[in-house]
């Protein structure tokens, strides 16, 4: 099970995610309590070993803005959240990053439909931290897709059983306050996922 820990902003929390076995780490470079500058993301990404994917998260920015931030930060993946047009993904393809399309369950759930490499299926109200009907998407997404939205160490095994995803993504579920990650919760989340198989 592929695991992405998103919204990291402190070196200690990046280290905790790597040590716990995360496959990907997300840096939010868009409007959010978890926002970091591209320069800060570059500092954080520099401490991430090569086997862990670094992801820059964007929502609504134009491709030129995303391109500049991705180049400055040095992230190896770009996540476009929301209803970005297909053209936005095509405009970034030449950078060579892993492209992640993050949408709600009402969108086209075929991974690769917009030339992305990974699909992330989020709650209807992304960023709310509220659990939603994970079972409603079971069997619908195709390809490599991550379940997100309201996941925590306490419910991730239930969510995996309900939706049968290829991977999972967590942000607020491993925080003690908006934007404040907890290394113990990160570790507990990874352990819960691994125990789910």
List keywords for this structure.
single chain, 197 residues, alpha/beta, eight-stranded parallel barrel, 6 helices, 10 strands, 29% helix, globular
Describe what is shown at a glance:
With 197 residues, the protein is of the alpha/beta class. The chain has helices spanning 11-20, 38-45, 63-73, 86-92, 156-163, 183-195; strands at residues 2-5, 24-28, 53-58, 77-81, 98-104, 118-122, 145-147, 167-170, 175-177, 180-181. The model has no long low-confidence stretch (mean pLDDT 96).
Biggest β-sheet strands, sense, barrel: 8 strands, parallel, barrel
Distance between the termini: 7 Å
Average pLDDT score? 96
Shape: globular
Give a count of the beta strands, DSSP E runs of length 2 or more.
Answer: 10
User: Helix coverage percent of residues?
Assistant: 25-40%
Counting DSSP H or I runs of 4 or more residues, the number of helices is 6
